[in-house]
Amino acid sequence: MDRLSQLKQWLESLAENTYTNLQPASADASFRQYFRVTNKNDNKTYIIMDAPPEKEDSRPFMLVTNLIRRVEVNAPNIIAVDVKQGFLLLDDLGNRPYLDELNDDSAEKLYIDAIEALLKLQNIDGVLPAYDAQLLQTEMDLFETWYLNRHLDTELNKAQKAVLNNIFKLLIKNAEEQPQVFVHRDYHSRNLMITDDNNPGVIDYQDAVFGPISYDLVSLFKDCYIEWPREKIEHWLDHYLARLTPHRFIEKRTLVRWFDLMGVQRHLKVLGIFARLNYRDGKAQYLDDLPLTLKYIIDACNRYDELKPLKLLLEDTISQSKNSSTIA
Fold it and tell me: Locate the Aminoglycoside phosphotransferase domain: which residues (predicted)?
């Protein structure tokens, strides 16, 4: 039986075949797929998450859903689940991602709402995996393997490897010195849904960890899919700082440095992930997002002297790449 037939059979087993009109809803950068169905009794739509168990473990999603809903952030309620088959029936948070409606007029309210939700998330107690040095390093290794080696078709020499390793150590140290809180890991405009009540709806949080306080701020304000002027970003950071509970007092300059260096770690990882999505998974659309991601890194390098060696390394590898036609 193919996957879709398996899903339909599971759906028919629920509540006397109440759910009909199965339609594709979306897919993400993982192996998960999403479908929208209609309940004949209340005429409301619901979402089915299809997470093939050999590729995706549904249990972290279930755990994190409960944690998020406990702090009254708008995550979908889980109505039915079959962990063995990898099917979940969820509330439908709608089809209005932030990305589709963000503009100069709407941004202030939408981002203030997102900050308020993030502050609640950061009060979740830690029962999650640690965003430790090993995980940070593993993520950054994707940059060399998939962006430099595969996308740019270049190999680092011994001196360049030493430069990159020193940068990695700096970025890991920056992450480790921050307060450790709940981290969504992809708290950006494609994973925040505009909702009439308790905006925003939050999705795609199954990879949440306990890690650096600035990480989700980077995902939100240095979003790989939309760019904002630095002055707007610092304005939103000011609002975040003003709303922090007193026992977490952080100076602006400290947060900004954490934020900028954390951004380099995230965006090195993302360069690798976007390249991997293209070459391994056939999702070429992610190559379109490489230029902005790279720009964020270069901007940070221009702000901090200790990142200058990374800028030189990037300039050297890009200029010498055999694959110049696809350089970001």
Answer: 22-244
Give the homologous superfamily in CATH for domain 98-326. Aminoglycoside phosphotransferase (APH), C-terminal lobe (3.90.1200.10)
What are the structural domain ranges in the chain? 3-91, 98-326
What span, in angstroms and rounded, lies between the C-alpha atoms of 232 and 236?
6
Kindly tell me if the per-residue pLDDT of 324 is higher than 80: no
Tell which CATH architecture fits domain 3-91. 2-Layer Sandwich (3.30)
**For 259-276, what is each residue's pLDDT tens digit?**
999 999 999 999 999 999
Rounded to 5°, the CA angle 245-248-250 comes to: 115
Contacts of 272-275 with C-beta under 8 Å, sequence gap 24+, read 272/139, 272/140, 272/141, 272/142, 272/143, 272/144, 272/145, 272/146, 272/147, 273/29, 273/142, 273/146, 274/147, 274/224, 275/146, 275/147, 275/150, 275/151
- When mean pLDDT is compared across 170-174, 176-180, 261-265, 324-328, the lowest value belongs to 324-328
In three-state secondary structure terms, 299 is helix
In whole numbers, what is the pLDDT of the chain averaged over residues?
Answer: 93
**Beta pairing, strands 209-212 & 180-183:** antiparallel
Going by C-alpha positions, the residue among 198, 209, 179 that lies closest to residue 114 is 198
What pLDDT is stored for residue 224 in this prediction?
A: 98
- The beta strand positions in 4-54, using DSSP E, are 19-27, 33-39, 45-50
CA distances from 158 to 164, 165, 199, 293, 323 (A): 10, 11, 50, 26, 21
With a CB cutoff of 8 Å and minimum separation 6, the contacts of 181 are 121, 122, 123, 124, 126, 210, 211, 212, 213
Stated pTM of the model: 0.93
Q: Residue ranges of the alpha helices (H) in the chain?
A: 3-12, 59-70, 98-101, 107-121, 133-142, 158-176, 215-221, 230-243, 252-279, 290-303, 308-319
Q: Over pLDDT 70: what percentage of the chain?
A: 95
